[in-house]
Design brief:
Strand order of the largest sheet: 1-2-3-4-5-6-7-8
Bound molecules: 3-methyl-2-oxobutanoic acid
Strand content: 15-25%
Radius of gyration: 18 Å
CATH superfamily: Phosphoenolpyruvate-binding domains
CATH architecture: Alpha-Beta Barrel
Helix content: 40-55%
Structural class: alpha/beta
Number of strands: 8
CATH class: Alpha Beta
């Protein structure tokens, strides 16, 4: 165990922590009203809302726009916004762009990566900005890595992940998203930290879970990640209501 974070956002989270992405006012209002504890304006917006192939085309202006929409729909949940690719090339840029996200309504910011990002994380938290880390599969690097791959399969990779998580906690992160991490490694990271972990595709032994809204609700039927459980049929409901509308206006 390392030293506990003093981030005030932690007082608003109870284990098991529930977290989900939200990208606009109605989805934020519905998620917040349902009692989800943490909402993420994730750069997955570039895929499930904008139809992009991956998250590498998302800009800071887009995340700012979506953060403003989501802020209007949130009463209780903690609101975290992603720093998209190329918006945190050095510590100064990371702090300046984090401030813009906070001004747009975020309670905290998130960026992807471990040891390579510690100087930026430290700069963000030293500026008094709450920070959520993201380890494991890093979607912003999908092109360099040639696909979405499970992380922590080798002993060395597992050791590096645990060490990076500890370094991120030490740099002031209040939580860490673990994406596509081997479940046993995610469990070990969770045991080693005093801040919570939010798993996605990383098993159930995390402090909480985070999902993409469209995966959970069945709103993006063209692709569902293998680990995602789909609990709804939003796409089917839209198709049904549109068919009813077309039928209605075809014979008024
Ligand atoms: O952008 C996003 O949706 C995310 C989640 C996968 C955690 O970072």
């Amino acid at each position: 165990m390392s030293s506990p974070s003093s981030d005030p956002l932690l007082a608003r989270l109870r284990e098991p922590i529930s977290a989900i992405t939200a990208y606009d006012y109605p989805s934020a209002r519905l998620c917040d009203g349902a009692g989800v504890q943490l909402l993420l304006v994730g750069d997955s917006v570039g895929m499930v809302m904008a139809g992009g192939e991956d998250t590498t085309g998302v800009t800071l202006d887009e995340i700012l726009y979506h953060t403003r929409m989501v802020r209007r729909g949130v009463k209780s949940a903690v609101l975290v916004s992603d720093l998209p690719i190329h918006s945190y090339e050095d510590p100064e840029e990371a702090v300046a762009n984090s401030r813009r996200l906070i001004e747009a309504g975020a309670d905290a910011v998130k960026l992807e990566g471990g040891f390579g990002q510690i100087d930026k994380v430290r700069a963000i938290t030293s500026a008094g900005i709450s920070f959520c880390a993201h380890l494991g599969m890093l979607p912003q690097r999908v092109r360099e890595e040639g696909g979405y791959k499970k992380k922590g399969k080798s002993e060395e990779e597992a050791r590096t992940l645990v060490a990076a998580a500890l370094a991120l906690e030490e740099a002031g992160a209040f939580a860490i998203v673990l994406e596509s991490v081997v479940p046993e490694v995610a469990a070990e990271i969770t045991r080693s930290l005093s801040i919570p972990t939010l798993g996605i595709g990383s098993g159930w032994d995390c402090s909480g879970q985070i999902r993409v809204l469209h995966d959970v609700t069945g709103a993006y039927p063209w692709f569902v990640p293998p680990f995602a459980r789909v609990h709804g049929d939003v796409a089917g409901e839209m198709r049904r209501s549109l068919a009813a509308y077309l039928d209605e206006i075809s014979r008024p």
